[in-house]
């Protein structure tokens, strides 16, 4: 096809739109800069057909994009509606607690005593003779974690007793860390940041396969939302907490909005615990809740980069962080 002819089509300011391609037009009308009609030669039938198909295609693409944007808007509205409601509820109770400090301290002391007694619940859970799954002995080493990963690949479930024991150790570890933790890249020269695993063991293992297992020379930051939605939230959490205990300065974990008891009930983690641990699900759930409440919220890299799951409010002073 003649390139000059095609180029001339784009330069024309046509006032007559060609709607059909069955009949040859007499001419194409346009106007010059003095608004005087100018007669141009007729367009070839093939070119008119091409333009018509192009117009239809562009219209179809535009409609497809509109549908995509509408669908995404609806999804986001449904996704974050419940979270916004929970945030309002949290702010409401926070105001009540701040106005009653003495009563809150009394309740808090009672909760601390209850937690101390609940941490020993794992001793009440017997290990059946038919259990041949992974066994945890503290302090953990890399061989135990490697065996854990192999067991989870084979669809084995960690015993409730070992799981609660691990969660207790993780709670004590994270409780020593402030809400804002710091790390540097000067030692390893690199840093891998992972977010929103959402119970996908395959995704976690693929990341380890491509980037290597965590170590002092291969640090990681897990930026929240590693439970809910997926079917392997327990296994993902066990691997993450185990690595945090093994490499406390090289494997850092931030809390996301899904590391929350109410979110877990709504988005599947609680259901997963019931299906895997049956009568012990309540004890396991409370143990997870105790860990989630002490997870750090922010990681600062090299005193210059802030990593957090939910973003920073526009009223937050970065200098304070």
Number of helical stretches of at least 4 residues: 10
Major sheet: size, sense and barrel closure? 3 strands, mixed
Briefly note the structural class of the backbone.
Answer: mainly alpha
Overall outline: elongated
Separation, N- and C-terminal Cα atoms = 64 Å
Classify the helix fraction into a percent range.
40-55%
Secondary structure blueprint with pairings:
Layout: H1 3-11, E1 28-31, E2 37-40, H2 45-99, H3 101-118, H4 142-153, H5 160-175, E3 180-183, E4 192-194, H6 201-211, E5 220-223, H7 233-246, E6 251-254, H8 261-267, H9 269-277, H10 281-292, E7 298-301, E8 305-308
Parallel strand pairs: 3-7, 4-5, 5-6
Antiparallel strand pairs: 1-2, 7-8
Q: Could you provide a short overview of the structure?
A:
This protein has 321 residues and is mostly helical. The chain is built from ten helices and eight strands. The chain is elongated, with a radius of gyration of 30 Å.
């Amino acid at each position: 096809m003649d390139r000059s002819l095609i180029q001339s089509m784009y330069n024309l300011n046509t006032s007559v739109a060609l709607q059909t391609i069955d009949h040859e037009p007499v001419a194409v009308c346009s106007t010059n800069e003095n608004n005087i009609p100018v007669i141009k030669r007729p367009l070839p039938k093939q070119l008119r057909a091409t333009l018509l198909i192009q117009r239809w295609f562009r219209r179809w693409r535009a409609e497809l994009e509109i549908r995509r944007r509408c669908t995404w808007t609806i999804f986001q509205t449904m996704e974050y509606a419940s979270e916004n409601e929970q945030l309002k509820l949290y702010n409401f109770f926070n105001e009540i607690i701040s106005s009653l400090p003495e009563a809150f301290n009394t309740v808090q002391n009672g909760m601390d005593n209850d937690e101390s007694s609940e941490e020993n619940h794992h001793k009440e859970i017997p290990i059946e003779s038919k259990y041949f799954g992974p066994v945890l002995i503290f302090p953990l080493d890399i061989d135990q974690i490697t065996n854990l990963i192999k067991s989870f690949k084979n669809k084995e479930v960690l015993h409730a007793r070992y799981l609660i024991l691990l969660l207790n150790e993780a709670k004590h570890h994270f409780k020593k860390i402030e809400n804002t933790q710091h790390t540097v890249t000067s030692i390893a020269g690199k840093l891998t940041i992972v977010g929103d695993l959402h119970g996908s063991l395959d995704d976690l293992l693929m990341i380890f396969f491509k980037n290597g297992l965590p170590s002092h020379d291969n640090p990681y930051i897990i930026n929240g939302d590693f439970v809910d939605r997926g079917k392997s939230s327990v296994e993902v959490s066990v691997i993450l907490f185990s690595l945090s205990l093994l490499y406390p300065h090289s494997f850092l974990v931030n809390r996301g909005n899904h590391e929350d008891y109410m979110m877990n009930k709504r988005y599947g983690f609680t259901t997963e615990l019931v299906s895997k641990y049956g009568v012990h699900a309540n004890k396991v759930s409370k143990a997870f809740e105790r860990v989630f409440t002490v997870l750090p919220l922010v990681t600062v890299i090299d005193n210059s980069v802030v990593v957090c799951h939910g973003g920073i409010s526009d009223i937050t002073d970065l200098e304070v962080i």
